[in-house]
């Protein structure tokens, strides 16, 4: 009986989205530290703490900004929105996708979103300070789309057409000033490409509960 209980506890632990939980904790701790030492709604403060700004990356070689900007958020609402979405998507995807591929895709999508946004800004002779995990999170969203496509275009109550509609609404329905929607789009596209390369269904009876 004790061995059976141990197996149940072990299975529950294995089902926990550990990487997602760690990412959320890191983001929250970074935000709290920044709030205690300054204002997360001050552009200059965000810049000095690792925000994405392509002239600094290209001209000064500050390549670390491609990663650090993913852990910096502009105000509590920005942080809560991103961590809420990361928690939902990560809980659904991390176990099926595998923690290593999940973590790799998270960072590559975040970097890809920042690169695409920067290329568009360069083309338009613009430069903006950008922060947030949105590009990486949209990459995870793109992975979910591919998972559904590869699982016969449906997993439970979620179908590919429904998810595509939701994706379009999320990306293009929020194009107000100050929202880096190109980073969202870039992150999602990178996530889709990576999932097509790295993901193969383990169990076609798995499904998402959204």
Task: Tag the structure with descriptive keywords.
single chain; 210 residues; mainly alpha; Rhomboid-like fold; two-stranded antiparallel sheet; 10 helices
Molecular structure report:
This protein is mainly alpha-helical and 210 residues long. The protein has a single domain, classed as Rhomboid-like (Rhomboid-like fold, Up-down Bundle). It is 70% helix and 2% strand. It contains 10 helices and 2 strands; from the N terminus they run H-H-H-H-H-H-H-H-E-E-H-H. The chain has a two-stranded antiparallel sheet with strand order 1-2. Helix 6 crosses helix 7. The longest helix has 25 residues. The relative contact order is 0.13.
Main beta sheet = 2 strands, antiparallel
| Overall structural domain count | 1
CATH topology grouping: Rhomboid-like fold
What is the count of DSSP helices, taking H or I runs of 4+ residues? 10
Silhouette: globular
Q: What structural category characterises the helix and strand content?
A: mainly alpha
Radius of gyration: 18 Å
How much of the polypeptide forms β-strand, as a percent range?
under 5%
Task: Find the CATH superfamily.
Answer: Rhomboid-like
SSE layout and pairing:
Elements: H1 2-15, H2 18-37, H3 43-48, H4 54-60, H5 65-68, H6 76-97, H7 99-123, H8 134-150, E1 154-155, E2 158-159, H9 160-172, H10 181-198
Helix pairs in contact: 2-6, 6-7, 6-8, 7-8, 7-10, 8-9, 8-10
